[in-house]
Design goal:
- The complex is a heterodimer of chains A (about 525) and B (about 550).
- In chain A, about 60% of the residues lie in helices and about 10% in strands.
- With about 525 residues, chain A is an alpha/beta fold.
- Chain A has 15 helices and 8 strands.
- Chain B has about 550 residues and is an alpha/beta fold.
- Chain B has a 7-stranded mixed beta sheet, sandwiched between helices.
- The two termini of chain B are about 55 Å apart.
- The chains are: A alpha/beta (about 525), B alpha/beta (about 550).
Chain lengths: ~525, ~550
C-alpha cells in the first residue's frame, strides 16, 4: 500500500518549487505565452490549493469536487447527496456562480481557514438565509466560497459544487478549472445529451494525465435508454483509456429536472456509498489520497519542463529583440564613423561657410554651422537605427508588448538631447583652444575662436578640410595643432559614443523593464530535480 | 428526379448589393500588390461564393439546421419534413453527415454546391398544403458542432459558409454553452436577419420555466450582439418548440414559409457576408485621421532640402561678397593701402592660402535622408500599416539619386563663377572717391607750395580743399556702403532663392510627386472600401 510518508525535506522542496513557479513571468506576447500563463496559474493553484496542504496535513478531510458542463445537474446532485438544498439549482444557465463547499460540522475548521483555496473569500451562510441570499457579496469583485455544513455527510468528506467548466462567463470557467485542481476526488458529471461533448472530455483527459482519482456520473438519463447510453458512455471511456474509472448512472426523474428538487436517496445511493467508503475506510482513503497526490507530483515532471521551456522561449525572444536594437545601433554607428571620416559634416551649409571663411564668414558662424551639421548627422543615425529596429520588430510577435513599439513621440527629445551633447562638445573644444592659445608665447596671439573653428573643421571635414589643418599649424605651430587635434578628436569620439549609447539605452529601457532573464528556466528545472531527489 | 428538373431562374442581386460586390472585387484587385494573400483570402472567398450562388436557383432558399449534439436537430428536421428522414437516437453523436431535403425541383445545383451526395438527398412527405407553404425550401440537417468528433465540426463549418439561412437548435440544457455562443453566434452576429434560434425540448420544462429559459436565451443572444427580430424590426427569429410533441412546429413552418416566399435570404446572406468582410478589413483600409501631404509638410521638406544644399549660407556668402567688393571698389585709397600693408606684415593671421575646391558631395547626405524620412513619416501618419509602408517605400525609392541630383544642382544654380556683377553707379562712386583724393592731394600740394614758398600764401582755399577731401572721402565711402546694402541683400537673396527653388523642385519631382500619387492610390482604394461598406462617398 502506498502511504503518505511526507518528509519535511519534500515539503521544503515543494514550497521552493512553488515560489519558483509563482515568480515565473511571461510578459512577451509569444504564441505560447497565454498558454504558459494559464499553465502557470493552474499549477500554482494546484500547489496552493491541493498539493502543499494535502502533504502537510494528510489527515484533513477528502475533498470531492463535482465538476461538469452547464446544465448537467451538478447542484441537484450535491443537494441530493447532502439531503437538503445547499446549492441553488435552476433552469437558467449558468446556475451556480458561487462555489459551495459542504462538509460535516466537525470538519468545518479544516475549511474555514485559509488552508486550502487561499484566494477565495469565505462566506459563512446561516441556514435560514440560504434560500434568499441578500447577504451574498457582489461576485464581480471578489471570488467567494460559500461553506455549508451538514451532518448528513460522513466525517472526513467534503463536497464542492463547482461552476460550469464550459461556462459562457470566462471567470467561471477559470474558477472551475482551479477548483478541479484542488480535489482529492474528481467527480465528473455529464448527461445523456452531453456525454460526447468535446469540453468534458478535455477535462477527463486532464484527470487521466494527472492520474487523479476520478469518478464519472452519467446524470439525467431517461430511464428508457439507461442501458444503451450507459453502454455507449462506457465504450467511449474505455476507448479513451479510462475503462477502470468508477461509473455511476443517475436516471432522469421529474424531481431532477427543473425547480431544484432533491432526488430520492436511492437514486444517488451508490455514489454516496462509494464516496463515504473512500472517506471512512482507512485503506481506501489512503489509496485515494495517495493516488491523486502522487499523480499531481508526477505530473510536475512534464508540466515543469513545459513552463521552463516557455520561460526559455521568453528569454530567447527578449534576446532577439535586444539583438535587433544592438545590431541596428552598431551598424548605424559604423556608418556614422565612416561618414565622419569622409567629412560628411562639412557639407551643405557648413561647407558653404567654410568656403567663405574667413572673408565672408566669422569663426563663430563656421562653428555654429559645423555643430548644427554634426547634430543633424547624429540625429540621422539615431532615427535610421530606430527605423531599422521598428522594421525588425514588426516581424517579431514578441514586440507587441504595450510600451515597446508604440513609444511616446520621443524624436524631438532625441533631437534635443543630441543638440545638447553637441553644444557641450563645442564648449569644451573652445576651452581647449583657449588653453592652447594662452600657452602660446607669441606677441600677437591668434583669436581662440578662430582656432576652435579650424580645429573643428579639421576634425569634422575629413579630407576636404586639409587646408584647415594647415591653417591651424600656421597659427599655433605644428606641435600645438597636433596636440589640439588629438584632444579634440578624443573628445568628439567620447561625446558621439555617449550620445548614441544614451539613445540605445533609452530604446532598450522598456525591454529591460520587463525583466526577462535566463534564470527562471534553470531555476524551475533545478527546483524540479530537487523535488525528485527528495521523493 | 434531377433529370426532369427544370432550369430554375438564377438569383438576381439588387442594385446596392451588386455595386457593393463590384466595389469589393475592385478593392481586391487594387490591393493585391499591397496586402498579403491571407488578408484578402476571406474577401476572395465571399466574392466567389456570391458569384457561385448567383448562378444557381433564385427560387430556392437553403436553410441549415445546426446545433449541439442531442439538441434534437434531426428530430426537428423530421418534424418539418413530415417523414423520419434523418436518423435520431440516444447514441451521441447521431448524425455524422449532412442530409438535404428539397421541397421543390430545380435545387440540384444548390445541393451539389454543399457537397451532399445523391444518396443523402430526400423529398418530404408530399401534401398539397405543405407543398404550397414551403415551396422553394431546401433543408439541410447538419451534424453537431460540439462533440469530440472533429470531422463533424468541419462539416458544419464548411456548410454554414454556403447556406442562405441557419436554424440554430438549442435545448434547455445546452442553450448557454460557451462553444455555441463564442464560436458561432458571436462571429455571425451580422447575419441575424438570416438566423433562427429555436429552443427545442420545451416539453422537458415545467410550466413557466419555458418562458424563463426563452427570456434568458434572448438575453444571451442580445449579449452576443445579435439583433432580435422583435416588434417588426429585422433580426433573428427566436422561438420555442418541441419537436417531440409537435408544439410550435406549425408556427415555425409558417415563419419559414414566409421567409422562403420572400426569396431574399440568399441576397441578405451575401450582404451580411460582405459586411462582415468589410468589418474584418476595416483595420487595413481605414485611416485614423486625415492623412496626406499637408502644405506645411511640403514646405518643411523644401526647407530641409534647402538646408541640405546650404542655401542660406550660400545666400549670406554671396551678399557679403557683393558688399565686400563694393566696399573695396568705393573705399578710400588710404584704407586699401593700409589693408595691403597689413596683409604683407602678418601672413599667418591673415587670409588662408588659396584653396582649391573639389565639388563632390556638396550636399549634406544626412540632412537629405532625414528630410525624406520626415516627409514620409508625415505623409503616412494615420494610414493603415500596408499603405503607410507603400508611401514610405515610394519616398525612399524617389530619394535614390536625389543627393547626386542636388550636388549637380548646387554647382549649377549656386554662386555664379567669377566676380559679382558691377552695378552702373560704381564708376561714378569710384570717380567721386578719386576726386576726393585728388582734392586732398591738390590741397596738400598747395599748402606744401606755400611752405616752400613757391606759391603766394593763401591758407583758406587749400585747407578748405583738404578738409573737403578728407571729410568727403569717408563720406563717399559711407554713402556707397549705404547704397550697396540694398543691392547686396537682393543679390544674396537671389542666390539663396535660386538654390532653394532648384532644390525644392528637385525634391518635388523625385519624392513628393511619387508620395502624392501613392496617397492618391490609397484614397481610391479607400473610396472603394467605403462603397463596400455601403456608405455613400461624398463627391470630391
Amino acid at each position: 500500500m502506498v502511504t503518505l510518508d511526507v518528509r519535511p525535506q519534500l515539503l521544503d522542496a515543494l514550497s521552493a518549487l512553488r515560489d519558483r513557479v509563482a515568480a515565473a513571468r511571461f510578459p512577451l506576447p509569444l504564441t505560447g505565452a497565454p498558454r504558459a500563463r494559464a499553465n502557470r496559474d493552474e499549477l500554482l493553484a494546484q500547489l496552493d490549493d491541493y498539493l502543499v496542504p494535502r502533504l502537510r496535513e494528510p489527515e484533513a478531510p477528502l475533498l470531492a469536487v463535482i465538476g461538469g458542463s452547464t446544465g448537467a445537474g451538478k447542484s441537484t446532485l450535491v443537494n441530493s447527496l447532502v439531503g437538503r438544498r445547499v446549492s441553488e439549482a435552476g433552469v437558467l444557465r449558468p446556475t451556480t456562480r458561487t462555489p459551495v463547499l459542504v462538509c460535516h460540522p466537525e470538519d468545518h475548521h479544516w475549511f474555514s481557514g485559509m488552508r486550502v483555496l487561499p484566494d477565495l473569500t469565505r462566506v459563512w451562510m446561516p441556514r435560514q438565509d440560504a434560500d434568499d441570499d441578500p447577504l451574498l457579496p457582489d461576485e464581480d469583485d471578489t471570488r467567494v466560497l460559500r461553506i455549508e455544513t451538514a451532518d448528513t455527510l460522513p466525517r472526513g468528506l467534503a463536497l464542492l459544487d463547482a461552476p460550469d467548466i464550459d461556462s459562457l462567463v470566462a471567470r467561471n470557467r477559470a474558477l472551475a478549472a482551479e477548483l478541479m485542481c484542488a480535489a482529492d476526488i474528481w467527480v465528473m458529471v455529464t448527461t445523456a445529451a452531453r456525454y460526447a461533448d468535446a469540453v468534458p472530455w478535455h477535462l477527463l483527459r486532464t484527470a487521466k494525465e494527472q492520474d487523479a482519482t476520478l469518478v464519472t456520473v452519467l446524470d439525467r438519463v431517461p430511464h428508457q435508454v439507461v442501458s444503451e447510453v450507459s453502454r455507449q458512455f462506457g465504450a467511449l471511456l474505455a476507448k479513451a483509456g479510462l475503462g477502470g474509472v468508477p461509473r455511476f448512472t443517475v436516471p432522469e426523474l421529474p424531481e431532477s429536472a427543473w425547480g431544484g428538487g432533491l432526488l430520492p436517496a436511492t437514486a444517488v445511493a451508490p455514489l454516496r456509498t462509494w464516496l463515504a467508503q473512500q472517506a471512512q475506510d482507512p485503506a481506501a482513503r489512503h489509496r485515494t489520497m495517495a493516488r491523486t497526490a502522487y499523480g499531481a507530483l508526477d505530473s510536475l515532471k512534464s508540466r515543469m519542463p513545459e513552463l521552463a521551456g516557455a520561460a526559455a522561449a521568453q528569454y530567447a525572444a527578449a534576446l532577439r529583440l535586444t539583438a535587433a536594437v544592438e545590431g541596428a545601433y552598431d551598424s548605424e554607428y559604423t556608418r556614422l564613423r565612416g561618414r565622419l571620416q569622409a567629412g560628411a559634416v562639412l557639407a551643405g551649409g557648413a561647407l558653404k561657410r567654410w568656403r567663405s571663411y574667413p572673408l565672408d564668414c566669422s569663426a563663430g558662424e563656421l562653428l555654429d554651422a559645423l555643430v548644427e551639421s554634426l547634430a543633424a548627422l547624429l540625429l540621422c543615425a539615431v532615427t535610421a537605427a530606430d527605423e531599422r529596429i521598428d522594421e525588425t520588430w514588426r516581424r517579431e510577435p514578441a514586440a507587441g508588448v504595450p510600451g515597446l513599439t508604440d513609444r511616446d513621440p520621443a524624436l524631438e527629445s532625441a533631437e534635443h538631447r543630441i543638440g545638447m551633447a553637441v553644444r557641450r562638445w563645442r564648449r569644451v573644444l573652445e576651452e581647449y583652444a583657449e588653453d592652447e592659445v594662452r600657452a602660446l608665447e607669441k606677441s600677437v596671439a591668434p583669436d581662440p575662436e578662430a582656432v576652435a573653428a579650424l580645429v573643428a573643421t579639421a576634425l569634422l571635414g575629413g579630407r576636404r578640410a586639409r587646408s584647415a589643418g594647415e591653417g591651424l599649424a600656421e597659427r599655433i605651430g605644428a606641435h600645438g595643432a597636433l596636440r589640439l587635434r588629438d584632444k579634440g578628436g578624443r573628445l568628439l569620439t567620447d561625446y558621439i559614443d555617449k550620445a548614441l549609447d544614451g539613445e540605445r539605452e533609452r530604446r532598450l529601457a522598456p525591454l529591460d523593464a520587463l525583466d526577462v532573464h535566463p534564470e527562471p528556466q534553470a531555476e524551475l528545472i533545478a527546483a524540479l530535480s530537487v523535488l525528485q531527489k527528495e521523493r | 428526379m434531377e433529370k426532369r428538373a427544370p432550369v430554375a431562374a438564377p438569383l438576381a442581386y439588387d442594385g446596392p448589393l451588386r455595386s457593393r460586390l463590384d466595389a469589393l472585387r475592385e478593392l481586391v484587385g487594387l490591393s493585391r500588390t499591397r496586402l498579403d494573400g491571407r488578408t484578402l483570402a476571406e474577401a476572395g472567398r465571399v466574392l466567389d461564393e456570391a458569384a457561385a450562388r448567383r448562378r444557381l436557383s433564385g427560387q430556392h432558399t437553403v436553410v441549415a439546421i445546426a446545433g449541439a449534439t442531442g439538441s434534437g436537430k434531426s428530430q426537428l428536421f423530421n418534424a418539418l419534413a413530415g417523414v423520419p428522414i434523418s436518423e435520431t437516437g440516444v447514441r451521441r453523436p447521431t448524425t455524422a453527415a449532412p442530409i438535404a431535403c428539397s421541397w421543390s425541383d430545380g435545387a440540384a445545383g444548390l445541393i451539389d454546391r454543399l457537397g451532399i451526395p445523391g444518396r443523402l438527398r430526400r423529398r418530404p412527405l408530399q401534401s398539397a398544403e405543405d407543398e404550397a407553404q414551403l415551396r422553394g425550401l431546401v433543408l439541410v440537417d447538419l451534424p453537431d458542432h460540439d462533440s469530440a468528433a472533429v470531422q463533424h465540426r468541419e462539416h458544419v463549418d464548411r456548410i454554414l459558409a454556403l447556406v442562405d439561412a441557419v436554424i440554430w437548435v438549442v435545448d434547455p440544457e445546452k442553450y448557454a454553452d460557451a462553444v455555441l455562443h463564442e464560436r458561432y453566434l458571436r462571429p455571425m452576429a451580422g447575419h441575424a436577419e438570416v438566423t433562427f434560434v429555436v429552443l427545442n425540448q420545451v416539453d422537458r420544462l415545467p410550466g413557466e420555466a419555458a418562458d424563463q429559459v426563452l427570456d434568458d436565451l434572448r438575453r444571451l443572444l442580445d449579449e452576443d450582439g445579435i439583433a432580435l427580430g422583435e416588434y417588426g424590426e429585422p433580426g433573428a427569429t427566436v422561438m420555442s418548440l418541441s419537436a417531440l410533441t409537435g408544439e410550435g412546429i406549425g408556427e415555425l413552418r409558417e415563419v419559414l414559409g414566409h421567409f422562403v416566399a420572400e426569396r431574399g435570404a440568399a441576397a441578405r446572406r451575401i450582404s451580411a457576408d460582405v459586411h462582415a468582410t468589410a468589418v474584418r478589413l476595416y483595420p487595413v483600409y481605414a485611416n485614423r485621421r486625415q492623412a496626406g501631404l499637408t502644405e506645411e509638410a511640403r514646405e518643411e521638406f523644401a526647407d530641409r532640402l534647402a538646408d541640405a544644399v546650404g542655401a542660406t549660407a550660400a545666400g549670406e556668402a554671396a551678399e557679403r561678397a557683393w558688399r565686400r567688393n563694393a566696399n573695396r571698389a568705393c573705399g578710400t585709397p588710404w584704407l586699401r593701402l593700409w589693408r595691403w600693408y597689413q596683409d604683407r606684415r602678418e601672413p599667418p593671421t591673415g587670409r588662408l592660402s588659396v584653396r582649391t575646391w573639389t565639388d563632390e558631395e556638396v550636399t549634406a547626405r544626412q540632412r537629405v535622408e532625414q528630410a525624406v524620412r520626415t516627409v514620409a513619416e508625415q505623409a503616412s501618419g494615420g494610414l493603415p500599416a500596408p499603405w503607410a509602408q507603400a508611401v514610405r517605400e515610394a519616398a525612399v525609392r524617389g530619394s535614390q539619386g536625389l543627393c547626386e541630383a542636388l550636388d549637380e544642382l548646387a554647382v549649377r544654380a549656386g554662386a555664379p563663377v567669377g566676380r559679382p556683377p558691377r552695378p552702373g553707379w560704381w564708376p561714378a562712386a569710384v570717380l567721386a572717391q578719386a576726386s576726393m583724393t585728388i582734392l586732398q592731394v591738390v590741397g596738400g600740394l598747395w599748402l606744401l607750395g606755400q611752405v616752400v614758398g613757391v606759391m603766394s600764401p593763401n591758407l583758406g582755399v587749400p585747407v578748405l580743399l583738404m578738409v573737403i577731401g578728407i571729410v568727403g572721402g569717408p563720406g563717399v565711402d559711407w554713402a556707397c556702403r549705404l547704397a550697396a546694402s540694398g543691392p547686396a541683400r537682393r543679390y544674396g537673396a537671389d542666390a539663396e532663392r535660386r538654390l532653394r527653388e532648384a532644390a525644392a523642385g528637385c525634391g518635388r519631382a523625385r519624392v513628393l510627386d511619387p508620395v502624392a500619387s501613392e496617397l492618391l492610390r490609397y484614397r481610391e482604394v479607400r473610396g472603394q472600401f467605403l462603397r463596400v461598406t455601403g456608405i455613400e462617398v461624398p463627391a470630391g
